[in-house]
Amino acid sequence: MRGRAFVFGDGIDTDALAPGIFMKLPIAELARHCLESVDSTFVQNVKPGDILVGGLNFGVGSSREQAAEALKELGIACVIARSFGNIFYRNALNFGLPVLVCPTWSGIQNGDVLDVDPRSGLIENLAQKTGFSAQPLPDFLLEMIDNGGLVPHLEKRFARERQNMTGKTEP
Amino acid sequence: MAMNLAEKILAKAAGRARVSPGEILTCCVDLAMIHDSGGPRRVGPILKRWDVGIFDPSRVVLISDHYVPAIDDETRRIADITRRFATEHKISNFHEAEGICHVVLPERGHLKPGMFAVGGDSHSPTGGAFGVYMFGIGATEMAGVLATGEIWVRVPQTIEISFDNAFGPGVVAKDVMLFLCGQLGMDGGRSEAVQFSGSAIRALSMQERMTLSNMTAELGGQVGLIEPDATTAAYIHAAGADAGPLDHWKSDADAVRAAHYTYDAAALAPHVAAPHSPANSAPIGDMDAVKIDVAYIGACTGAKLVDLRMAAEVLKGRKIASHVSLMVAPASRRDQDAAAREGTLQILVEAGAKLYPNACGICAGYGGTLDDDVTCLSSTARNFKGRMGAASSRVYLGSPYTVAASAVAGHIVDPRPMLAEGKRP
User: Fold this and answer.
1) pLDDT tens digits for B132-166?
2) H helices within chain A, ranges in order?
3) B119 vs A contacts (CB less than 8 Å)
4) pLDDT single digits (tens) B216-229
């Protein structure tokens, strides 16, 4: 995947990604407030396919998965960070949003175009002609992302199981 | 092969004799806890889409605590969805407006050492105080757990944190966690298993241990385990359940730890975290006498019976400063009732505290929230920008002792002189 980078610092928390006071709102409206406490112009500037680049502990904080869902809603293609908050990391994968742990990235600027391969973990900064290696995701998580996240992934599994059950009961 | 407590619990949950850090396992869930915010209104539609029920309703505990009490049409609708979900899925463990999930769960005897549990809330590591491998997950993942009874886990390494000797007067679990967040950072736990140990930890009551495990979330650990002992068994017995055998549920002495931090409990001072991170903490002596508008004693972290007692110890015979609003939201109805019976609650009210419902309240930013430019000192776990209200509000974190003493002084103050004075005959 290829997209423009939006670069953030350390400790971007779930209250910044999905502010508590807007949690009652539907996701499309909640997403309009994503990261506004950190960068008030982010939502106006971001476009589908863009890539977020963060520092340490991206997504630290609450279990609210709207933090990941809001990024998906805005069309973010992928999040790269030095490390992730535990629950956010799982939530993002469950929404089919690739999250890549890359402790060593450097020099990425806002607007740089990145080429990212979640399968190999390779990150190429086309603007600055630099490259970094992220930890590749295990196959079963890549399969879940390819299926579009946990909901469609399990939907497939349940459908398969039902088919097998039906198959067994036939004479 | 020697194993840590985290590995022993995961091995049992995965039906394996032994497991090693780094392995990815599929584990069977002994208990799943969900609440009104991330629970039914989010998982219900997913279960419908899959056309499946709950794997075992007796292993599910549903607690309404976030949108409690309902204040408008939207929150009434959420309460209604939650109730209908409990009925439809035959969830008999449904506690509505009884208090905050992490406090109600053990209070009702749902947690036992060696269990593998997930909760739809980030402070789910609180269960670690009981030797339960419990961590928070999002609603979508919870839907998967409710449908299948399973979840994947990467076996974590274990980071041991020991406090030897004994804590001094006025120094409590909250101070320990603010100190650790400051020392190790909010990613100090590295998504691994944190295990608390040492003589000072063993001497703590269950509710104080819960504060430690609870804030493992802020320390960035997946779980915050404490080896169960006689204190654990006594609490569970009083909650009407049986802890079962405890011997197996400890880390083998020769099991490998990823790191082992050792501190002297006696050397620890009360700590305060400045805006906007629990890691932005310092000993109270290094903190300016910041004037406060609101003093908040609330949440699963800071308003259990033990926390209310701390506040009362300071506030007995004292009045809060006239410009301070002291808000107290006891963490559970049972804790509030116990505090009322023993006189703790009256001391708080006579000092000028205003009582709020037994719910997450302003900590989660869902209930009434802080206005523009308000400065608040809070016994809760998090002071992220804008979490408790306006982005311009400033939240400091401290122990219930520190919050109560500062409410009296009108600014952030070391609680120990007031405590010592209160103890004089």
Assistant:
1) 999 999 999 999 999 999 999 999 999 999 999 99
2) 14-17, 27-30, 42-45, 66-73, 86-94, 139-146, 150-169
3) 63
4) 999 999 999 999 99
Q: Can you list the positions of beta strands (E) in B65-210?
A: 94-96, 116-119, 133-136, 150-154, 158-164, 193-197
In CATH, B271-423 is 3.30.499.10: yes
| Token pair recorded at residue B98 | 């009884």
Minimum-distance CB partner of B147 among A13, A65, A154: A154
Tell me the three state secondary structure of residue B14. helix
Backbone angles phi, psi at B171, to 5 degrees: -115, 125
Question: How far apart are the C-alpha atoms of B355 and B343, rounded to whole Å?
Answer: 14
Pairing of strands A78-81, A51-54: parallel
Look at domain B5-264 and name its CATH class: alpha beta
* Residue with token string 């609330």: B298
**Any CB–CB contact under 8 A between A13 and chain B?**
yes
| CA distance to partner chain A, nearest, from residue B80 (Å) | 15
Per-residue tokens: A100:
């890549």
* Residues B275 and B396 sit within 8 Å (Cβ to Cβ): yes
pLDDT score recorded for residue A24:
82
Domain coordinates of chain B in residue numbers?
Answer: 5-264, 271-423
Model ipTM value: 0.86
Contact B180, B211 (CB under 8 A): no
pLDDT at B154: 92
pLDDT at B32 over 90: yes
**Which domains occur in chain A, in start order?**
2-137 (3.20.19.10), 138-171 (no CATH)
* Distance, C-alpha B137 to centroid of its chain: 15
Chain B residues whose CB is inside 8 A of the A89 CB are 191
List the alpha helices (DSSP H) in B221-343: 230-238, 299-302, 305-315, 333-342
Q: Does A165 touch chain B (CB under 8 A)?
A: no
Question: Nearest C-alpha of chain B: how many angstroms from A149?
Answer: 9
> What is the mean predicted confidence (pLDDT) over B289-302?
97
Q: What are the tens digits of pLDDT across the range B272-283?
A: 999 999 999 999
- Tell me the β-bridge partners of B265: none
B329-366 tens-digit pLDDT: 999 999 999 999 999 999 999 999 999 999 998 887 76
CA–CA distance, B328 with B193 (Å, rounded to integer): 32
